[in-house]
Design brief:
Structural class: alpha+beta
Number of strands: 19
Helix content: 40-55%
Radius of gyration: 27 Å
Distance between the termini: 51 Å
Length: 423
RNA sequence: GGAGAAUUGGCAGAGUGGUCGAAUGCGGCAGUCUUGAAAACUGUUGAGGGUCACACCUCCGGGGGUUCGAAUCCCUCAUUCUCCGCCA
């Protein structure tokens, strides 16, 4: 959520910047500012009314104590009107505050100056690529065929148990999956991230805190009986650990990593591009999250990007990094780098990581602050990134490492797997 | 799931209808003393709204109610603890 102060002070700049998202926010911003004005006016009015009524109450108390009940009763009558007033004003205030909140929820984060304008993923800017695209054997297969051939992932079995998009990993497939999780966690903790295990369900307040609600309501599995949501990413529980916190400036940077399964409804997306592991309702992901001092957050973003690069380098997978354009940028993000691995057998790029700086957008909703050197509370910056998402990394490994003798295991993973080949 | 008790500032813990945003202790910060540190002493120390700055307003688990007035009384929800039940 954008800060009202920022909107008030930089109205034109914000409207201009939001155009990169193909959003004309002028009228929305106008609404917000107007609502804020009325909110303030009502608040002032209410405050004055309450002040009067507080004063009278005190006087009444004193009168009673000194035995002047009659005079007290006169004052009591006066308070009745004030009470009606304040009741009405409180209602008005609540209505206006809710409207203001709802309007603010509709405004996405302001893109960073480096974000290119653009409508869709085609306008994303490739900023880096590395790794050789392997020359595959004749008759190379896409991963869903390989999964069947070596009996390591069973999509049909998952359909029987739960539905489409809930695969069953078997044997070496399951082991490779677990190896990847451990490998990623080890890499992240070695880089200083604190390993945590968090709930896989979150309440509504957490969903609002990181911005999935109300924006992506339909994308999450919701359990109405207990009013809980299955997490679509560890970002939600991990970042919400710091909701309503005032962190000590000395504790920056706060760095956390967590493995969780992720659940996404992905309503209405079927077809060739979602075959196999390309898009699932349940998948595994290891996430990294940081809470940073505002002056350090872009440095931190760079270091997260470097960190993910290092992992892909070790896995020897060909990948590229994209700077997302305004049209493709997530609602809450100011700047996002996507990592894509090249799936040789499918001849296409698959997104495997998304690393973002949210600046104060989430912190504002989370009320996540720190005390600066002047003793004033300021909003912190939050960042997160996948390090990494499992299924497409798995797809990349299966497809790029296939040989006539089977699927070779990347060297760094062999100690984690306990085997060097799937055949 | 059943019965009982509780929920107060970073922590511990007073406060049961009126100068209570809240005693006290610990912790934090600043200072005195010291070559430096510790100890001791002194001062300071919640959050949000509002204001140029004050004033002022809100917040004692959440929500609602009673009252001129609520941390204190009532209702409700949540959470925690104890006992019982169930259980990986």
């Amino acid at each position: 959520m954008l800060q009202l102060n920022a909107i008030r002070e930089n109205k034109e700049a914000i409207i201009e910047a939001l155009k990169k998202r193909n959003l004309d926010a002028a009228s929305l911003i106008e609404t917000v500012l107007n609502l804020d004005e009325s909110r303030k006016a009502i608040q002032t009015n209410l405050d004055n009314t309450l002040a009067q009524s507080n004063k009278l109450s005190k006087e009444i108390g004193i009168l009673y104590k000194t035995g002047k009940a009659q005079e007290a009763n006169v004052l009591k009558e006066e308070t009745a009107k004030l009470k009606d007033n304040s009741k009405q004003l409180t209602e008005d205030l609540n209505t206006t505050a809710t409207e203001l909140q709802n309007a603010l929820y509709q405004i996405p984060n302001v893109p960073h100056t480096s974000v290119p304008a653009g409508n869709s993923e085609e306008d994303n800017e490739e900023i880096f690529s590395e790794g050789n695209i392997p020359k595959l054997i004749d008759g190379a297969l896409p991963h869903w065929e390989l999964a069947k051939k070596y009996d390591i992932i069973d999509f049909e079995l998952g359909v029987k148990i739960a539905g489409a998009g809930f695969p069953v990993y078997k044997g070496k497939g399951a082991r490779l999956q677990r190896a990847l999780i451990n490998y990623f966690l080890d890499k992240n903790t070695a880089a200083g991230y604190t390993e945590t295990q968090v709930p896989h369900v979150v309440n509504e307040a957490s969903g609002y805190g990181t911005g999935q609600l109300p924006d992506k309501e339909g994308q999450m599995y919701h359990m109405p009986v207990d009013d809980l949501y299955l997490i679509p990413t560890a970002e939600i529980p991990v970042t919400n650990m710091f909701r309503d916190d005032i962190v000590n400036e000395k504790d920056f940077p706060v760095t956390v990593t967590a493995y969780t399964p992720c659940f996404r409804r992905e309503a209405g997306s079927y077809g060739a591009h979602v075959r196999g592991l390309n898009r699932l309702h349940q998948f595994d992901k290891v996430e990294i999250v940081r809470v940073e001092h505002p002056s350090k957050s872009y440095e931190a973003l760079d270091s997260m990007v470097e960190h993910v690069k290092g992992i892909l380098r070790e896995l020897k997978l060909p990948y590229r990094i994209l700077r997302l354009c305004g049209g493709d940028l997530g609602f809450t993000s100011a700047l996002t780098f996507d990592f894509e691995v090249f799936s040789t057998a499918q001849d296409r790029w698959l997104e495997i990581s998304s690393v973002s700086n949210f600046e104060t957008y989430q912190a504002n909703r989370l009320k996540l602050r720190f005390k600066d050197e002047n003793g004033k509370n300021q909003l912190a910056h939050t960042l997160n990134g996948s390090s990494l998402a499992l299924p497409r990394v798995l797809a990349g490994i299966l497809e790029n490492y296939q040989t006539e003798d089977g699927i070779m295991i990347p060297e760094v993973l062999i100690p984690y797997c306990g085997f060097d080949k799937i055949d």
